[in-house]
Design brief:
CATH class: Alpha Beta
Largest sheet: 8 strands, parallel
Strand order of the largest sheet: 1-2-3-4-5-6-7-8
Number of domains: 1
Number of helices: 13
CATH architecture: Alpha-Beta Barrel
CATH topology: TIM Barrel
Number of strands: 8
Helix content: 25-40%
Shape: globular
Oligomer: single chain
Order of helices and strands: HHHEHEHHEHEHEHEHEHEHH
């Protein structure tokens, strides 16, 4: 998959199902989980470091590029639908990622949700890196609860980020204001991420979805090595996320464990964070519970302290500003 593909094109290569209220109701309740488990969850107050939301209220939140309600797939994943999905499984906070394919760089649904649910949500926004002063929009969104900015290859008006004045401004301003730069890239672009991390060593960076290593079904050693090499930049983090899209793309997702171990050894748990990438984790036979279970239950080398970091504390530090998460 190339970076010019849309989310819809990517999902068309996978088996998808429509998420309905009835489907969401099928997630286990807190009571059911307590009955099935002999011990309480290892981590209390889990943070999902990556979910999207959108609404069918397009009068209040218009869709980008002339899209209509028929273009929404799944038809909706509102703030309440997200909460109904995650809360029964012990997830207390969520980092909302601006859904650029549907809402472009209008971040208002994310920022309004943050305002309406104090302390529950943080945000990663999308802005126009080619604008004359992208740092001004970064500051505006920061005041509304956004703590990171998603970027993709080719943004900023140049093929390479290093050649884009606006993109360089974003990386520099992020380091000055304690914000994160969050690259969404395919494996072949990891060397560019590496170069920018070297150029802006004080910028917090969070690479989404393992840098999409394994998106074509094959987890290549060379790609894993390029991802692990980013660990030499002390402010760089990896999202252990989007299991539905990588490797076999089906639960229990255990084929991803060797890559997770490699990154664990390189970064340590303090720079790894779990995330679901909902609602897309809820398609094609995948479930939210399976995504969480891979880290919480299926990796024998993770200690209780490691799980605290990966399931809560790393995201709390980066996206909720907790200097020393308890």
């Amino acid at each position: 998959m190339t970076m010019t593909q849309t989310r819809r094109e990517f999902l068309s290569t996978m088996t998808t199902t429509t998420i309905t209220a009835a489907a969401l109701a099928g997630f286990p309740s807190t009571k059911r989980a307590e009955a099935d488990d002999d011990e309480p969850p290892v981590v209390e107050g889990i943070i999902d470091a990556h979910s999207h939301i959108w609404t069918r209220d397009i009068a209040a939140y218009p869709l980008a590029k002339g899209q209509t309600l028929d273009d929404l797939d799944p038809p909706s994943f509102t703030t309440q639908e997200l909460l109904d999905t995650v809360q029964p499984l012990g997830v207390k906070r969520v980092v909302l990622i601006q859904h650029r394919p549907f809402h472009g760089i209008d971040n208002s649904y994310v920022t309004d949700t943050i305002a309406q649910h104090p302390g529950i949500f943080s945000g990663v926004g999308c802005i126009d890196a080619a604008a004359p002063h992208p740092e001004q929009e970064m500051d505006r969104l920061h005041k509304l609860g956004v703590r990171g900015f998603r970027i993709r290859p080719g943004e900023g008006g140049a093929d390479r980020w290093a050649d884009s004045k606006g993109m360089c401004t974003m990386w520099r301003h992020a380091s000055e204001t304690g914000l994160a730069i969050c690259p969404l890239v395919n494996p072949e672009y990891l060397p560019e991420v590496d170069a920018m991390c070297g150029q802006y060593p004080d910028t917090a960076v969070v690479v989404d979805h393992f840098g999409r290593v394994g998106v074509d079904g094959t987890i290549r050693e060379s790609d894993v090595a390029n991802l692990a090499r980013l660990a030499r930049h002390k402010h760089t983090h990896i999202k252990v996320s989007a299991f539905y899209a990588l490797g076999k793309k089906q639960p229990p997702h255990t084929e991803l464990i060797p890559m997770i171990r490699r990154l664990y050894d390189a970064f340590g748990p303090q720079r790894l964070m779990w995330a679901s990438d909902s609602p897309y984790q809820l398609i094609g036979g995948n479930t939210y519970a399976d995504s969480l279970a891979l880290i919480r239950d299926r990796i024998d080398f993770l200690t209780p302290s490691d799980k605290q970091w990966m399931l809560r504390k790393t995201a709390a530090r980066v996206y909720f500003g907790e200097a020393d998460p308890a």
